[in-house]
UniProtKB/TrEMBL annotation:
Residues 18-126 form the Acyl-CoA dehydrogenase/oxidase N-terminal domain. One of its GO terms (biological process) is fatty acid beta-oxidation. One of its GO terms (molecular function) is flavin adenine dinucleotide binding. Residues 132-225 form the Acyl-CoA oxidase/dehydrogenase middle domain. Residues 243-384 form the Acyl-CoA dehydrogenase/oxidase C-terminal domain. Its cofactor is FAD. InterPro entries: ACX4-like, Acyl-CoA_DH_CS, Acyl-CoA_Oxase/DH_mid-dom, Acyl-CoA_Oxase/DH_mid-dom_sf, AcylCo_DH-like_C, AcylCo_DH/oxidase_C, AcylCoA_DH/ox_N, AcylCoA_DH/ox_N_sf. PANTHER family: ACYL-COA DEHYDROGENASE, ACYL-COENZYME A OXIDASE. This is Acyl-CoA dehydrogenase. SUPFAM superfamilies: Acyl-CoA dehydrogenase C-terminal domain-like (SSF47203), Acyl-CoA dehydrogenase NM domain-like (SSF56645). The keyword Iron does not apply.
Length: 391
């Protein structure tokens, strides 16, 4: 196979085995044929293409990471490349898929009982049921570990949830929403699977976003929302269990950032070869080549970082600070790279027709979610110095 992404300058993709590469190329072709052609239109209208969900399901990759779902288990490297590939096509749809397979399914896989995993994961793996992850609140983001205000009160075999959540991706149409709430009896954070249609649960679409407009983020209200004990994630006993989910999904966000960088570089390179000024393609000018090489260098360095991160994951030596450093560094470089690409396209860089404007805007959301740069810096800082500096 020789159909590498143009921006994969060191051919990292060749680290995958042949079967994994076939899976990646199959996903790449689906994204190119079905997702890319509608990405700008969906983004402009802030509407989610529900008709594409079956196409994603048919790829057969949503449940690959989980033993409860059929199929060969992927390496961390393949999972990373899939996340990168999706963001390379459309960051909004990459976010949709990551919320479903990483945050929602990951929470059930890591924190659910055997019965709960068997009950929910196979259907979610087939994408017959879509998941969401409700942790962030209107007044709790970076301080959510200690500042969670949504509460859960037990009444016999039922839990009563009260509170609100914000920025919940897939929240308007998800079938299963993993809600994190503080138990009023022991003050520990616990996880609950709330099924769509449960009385006391309402989700309202957040309007007027400037990034990831295709993603259906929701404000969620929980008013005496009653959830059976059978829907409490049995192994989610404190925020430490919640953090286990975030460790893995942060690495996925770093891969998404690389996908966005590669897309921005490839758009800029193609444009530079075709756009003429002063009777020659602008790719012939030294300053333009300098911008292109800067973009390629940043993307290549970050791709090398996340490839090593995936290898640590596969080796079982993956730690919180590893994913935190990758998320902080790669998303920071991503903002710079999309900025350079926008600069190279000049005025055309702000028009959706040239794609880069969408990537510039979406990069702002990727930069912030799954832990800001500052919070991830503090996670790494604590690991290397031995001192916590969060407060």
């Amino acid at each position: 196979m020789s159909d590498l992404l143009t921006g994969d300058f060191y051919a990292f993709e060749n680290l995958l085995d042949e079967e994994e590469r076939r899976t990646l190329v199959r996903v790449r072709e689906f994204l190119k044929e079905r997702v890319v052609p509608v990405a700008n239109d969906c983004w402009a209208r802030a509407e989610f293409p529900l008709d594409l969900v079956q196409g994603y399901a048919d790829l057969g990759i949503a449940g690959l990471a989980y033993p409860e779902c059929p199929g060969p288990k992927p390496s961390g490297l393949l999972s990373g490349f899939l996340a990168m590939e999706m963001a390379h096509a459309d960051a909004s749809m990459a976010t949709f898929f990551g919320v479903h397979t990483g945050l929602a399914m990951g929470s059930i896989a890591a924190c659910g009982s055997e019965e709960q995993r068997e009950r929910w994961l196979p259907e979610m793996g087939r994408m017959a049921k879509i998941g969401a992850f409700a942790l962030t609140e209107p007044n709790s983001g970076s301080d959510v570990a200690g500042g969670l205000r949504t509460v859960a009160r037990r009444e016999g075999d039922t839990w009563v949830l009260n509170g609100s959540k914000r920025w919940i991706g897939n929240g308007t149409f998800a079938d299963l929403i993993v809600v994190w709430a503080r138990d009023i009896d022991d003050a520990q954070v616990k996880g609950f699977v709330v099924e769509r249609g449960t009385p006391g649960f309402t989700a309202t679409k957040i309007e007027n976003k400037m990034a990831l407009r295709t993603v259906q983020n929701a404000d969620i209200a929980l008013s005496d929302c009653r959830v059976p004990e059978a829907n409490r994630l049995q192994r989610a006993l404190s925020f430490r269990d919640t953090a286990k989910i975030l460790r893995r999904t942060r690495s996925g966000v770093a891969w998404q950032a690389v996908g966005i960088m590669l897309a921005a570089y490839e758009i800029a390179l193609s444009y530079a070869k075709e756009r003429e000024q002063f009777a020659r393609p602008i790719a012939r000018f030294q300053l333009v080549q300098d911008l292109l090489v800067r973009m390629l260098g940043s993307a290549t360095a970050c791709l090398g970082m996340v490839v090593r991160l995936a290898q640590l994951q596969d080796a079982g030596t993956f730690r919180d600070e590893h994913s935190a450093l990758a998320k902080a560094y790669c998303t920071t470089e991503m903002r710079q790279v999309v900025g350079w690409a926008r600069e190279l396209l000049a005025g055309n860089g702000i028009i959706l027709d040239y794609d880069i404007g969408r990537f510039v805007a979406d990069a702002e959301a990727i930069y912030s979610y799954e832990g800001t740069r500052e919070i991830n810096t503090l996670i790494v800082g604590r690991a290397i110095t031995g001192f916590g500096a969060f407060v």
